[in-house]
Amino acid sequence: MRKILLTALISIIASFASFSQYKDALKEAFADAEYYVLFEDYNEALSLYLNLYKNGLDNAYINHRIGECYLQIPGQKDKSIPYLEEACKDMTKTIKEGSFKETKAPYGTLFYLACAYQNSNQLDKAIETFEKFKDLVSTEKDYNIDYVYKQIQSCEAARELINNPLNINEINIGALINDEFSNIRPVISSDEKSMVYLSKLKFYDAIFYTKKIDGKWTNPINITPDLNSDGNYYTCFLSHNGETLLLYKDDNFNSDIYISRLNGVKWSTPEKLNKHINSKFQETFASLSCDGKTIYFISDRKGGFGGTDIYKSEFDEKTNDWGEAINLGSEINTPFNEETPIICKEEKILYFSSQGHYNMGGFDIFYSQQLDKNMWSAPSNIGYPINTTDDDLFYYPLEDGKNAYISKYVKDGFGQEDIIRLEITSANH
User: What is the pTM of this model?
Assistant: First the structure.
């Protein structure tokens, strides 16, 4: 009898030990997933959260995280909806983010769900859910209610823009450039014979350079070592002759604008631009006029109209450097965020992205005509399907304004995001 009891006791102890090890493994996977979210590696985080979900952790918090990850991955955003719908059934005002014991979802999950509906063009559901979120957090200070109102207006605008589409041709530039990774932020010389772009490789973000010979892009060269980059430089602009490259550097604490020049076949180590361009705030994009004498850039420095604004600076021949920064004003800059300004068509048309103005949701591409040195026309939405209900951020127009490069998820493409050449044939653009 004692032997039977001893055997049973050992079995129970072993079971507890096994369960403890199992729980420890779940905790470790959860901690890793939260770490990946912190550093915006949503693909890695998603695989871990899905594994936790399959192993019984199907609470609102895990559903919220799975939905959040899907919402950040190109081509996967529709998959977020069922998880976010489930998470919204058990929300609370305050959560312990990063805690394995947390089982509830934050109020912000409802906003994510509204965005997911919006991105999938379920506009009635999106408006209804944005309204619910607005009512839920109307007395909370942690949420930007003005932006929620803006998204509701954007859903209404989306209906009109979708019903009046542009005529465009989309040309995938091919598998030589578009591999299995996300290939984004293409910058191109005026003659379309030089291109630099960013590829989000498995372990770091790399910058590649390619030339077009006999109408075909050549094997891209990884110039990340030339730039002495740790994977924290991002392409902004390539000069019209293809020999000057503007980048921004993100060190997790600040973002600044840098310049690199092509010396024969090698790009120089980037140099930081002066204090008129770079500040203690965030500078995340810059481009040059055709003559190289004006720089347009993005900053969230004090004194602006919203989050990030568009500024410009003239090159001072006397000091051989950039002069004081000038905000482009409230005709261009809104109470929300502006990004990626590029001027073309003989310095007369400014293209940029904005969360404000008359848009379809998130960031849209706009263009404005320069009326005189410091005056701009009211920005016009470039139209659907270049703009979508998702974020449309990096639009690189060529000098004629009828052609441009973008990166986007393509259903039958080569990677998560492919570089696409656009040909705009609509007569009204």
Answer: 0.90
